[in-house]
Amino acid sequence: MAEDLSFPDTNYYEPGMNVTVNSQNNMLNRGMDPKPLVMDYCMPQCHYWRAKLERCEAKLETIIKTSPTKTCLYPMRDWVTCVEACTQPKVHNALRGTERDYGRIL
């Protein structure tokens, strides 16, 4: 188990984590926000950062009694950043108006 929690060398995400945009386009056409659905898909992909946050929270339970100012802010920020880095491009690229070919314009 300790080998699975080492810092990833090349890719932070699990292989095969592609989300199809067809479901996002349908949700966008109906005026719904697809971000919660994509976030639910992306959260398990950031298992390294989630495990790091859980280890911090477990240690914090014992430390908080003696030092109440300690927090797990940075591991939480790292996990949220990982989830957002996975989610945001998938949602943004499904929006209308992002399909322009900037290579042709420049």
Describe the structure.
The chain starts with 21 loop residues before the first helix and ends with a helix. With 106 residues, it is an all-alpha fold. The radius of gyration is 18 Å and the shape is elongated. The chain contains 5 helices and no strands. Helix 2 (35-42) packs across helix 4 (73-92) and helix 3 packs antiparallel against helix 4 (73-92). The mean pLDDT is 78. Helix content is 54%, strand content 0%. The chain has helices at 22-29, 35-42, 47-63, 73-92, 102-105.
Summary of the model, kept short:
By secondary structure, this protein is mostly helical. It has helices at 22-29, 35-42, 47-63, 73-92, 102-105.
Question: Can you lay out the helices and strands and say which pair or pack?
Answer:
Blueprint: H1 22-29, H2 35-42, H3 47-63, H4 73-92, H5 102-105
